[in-house]
Amino acid sequence: MRVYNLISGIYSIAIPDGYLIEEDENTIGIYNEEDGVGTINITAYVIPASYDFVIEDELLDFVLSNKGVTKSTAFFIKEMESDYRGCEFVTADDRYWRYWLLYRNHKAVFCTYNCSVEDCSVEIDIIQSIIESIKVH
After folding, report:
1. What is the pLDDT of residues 73-82, one digit of tens each?
2. CA distance to 113, 115, 116, per residue, from 90 (Å)
3. Distance, CA of 76 to CA of 88 (rounded, Å)
4. Taking the complete model, does pTM exceed 0.70, yes or no?
């Protein structure tokens, strides 16, 4: 694994060998070009201290912004830690999605991963370890 520090300085992340990163302003994409079946996308923002950031509400808004999600899509929000939430679901077009939201030090890190539902178990353990490696500065 190698540690990647974003240009913005908001966070760093550990990337396994074989995974590539593409960075564009405040968004990065992470994928395995040879053996991967999906892509992680991460976007980070500095949140004003005066903003009332409620992590569950923000994650719900984030999930509902996915055009494949409807009010009938089944998903639940899981608390990983006090400042870290996640959820997973399958859309009507058979895409498997995982969403995570980390909120620390007035910084929000929004993460998604998606692949075909048939491939959802192929690299999910590696994907989870990448997400868990995020260090918000």
Report:
1. 666 777 677 7
2. 12, 10, 9
3. 7
4. yes
- CB-neighbour burial class of residue 47 (10 A; exposed 0-12, middle 13-18, buried 19+): middle
Q: State the Cα–Cα distance between residues 30 and 40, nearest whole angstrom.
A: 5
* Residue 68 exposed, middle or buried by CB count within 10 Å (0-12, 13-18, 19+): middle
The pair phi, psi for residue 37, each rounded to 5°, is -120, -5
Any idea which residue has 């980070």 for tokens?
44
52-55 long-range contacts, CB within 8 A, separation 24+: 53/103, 53/106, 53/108, 55/83, 55/85, 55/101, 55/103
Q: Say yes or no to pLDDT of 37 above 70.
A: yes
More confident residue, 70 or 47: 47
Structure tokens at 20: 């590539």
